[in-house]
Amino acid sequence: EHASAVKQTPSGHLAVHCARCPCTPMFTNTAILGRHSEKTIREVHEAFIIKTRGVDKCVSEPSVALLDKEILFLEREWGGRT
Hints:
The protein is mainly α. It has two domains: 1-30, no CATH class; 34-82. The chain contains four helices and no strands. This is Tick transposon.
């Protein structure tokens, strides 16, 4: 899924990053952390993961910004399930 995104969607975050950076994606060590049919939920989950795991572990920037109170709420709701 990630590998095809780099090849097929040159405007995607990962494809743009790969075009600009000499690094190589390690797809065998990559995991899909969540899926949802609603775009808003996907974006909130993405922002939560990037914020809680650290931007140094993520290629992308969050699509939405979350307040600290929202992060605390999501940590209580989602816990270690992300």
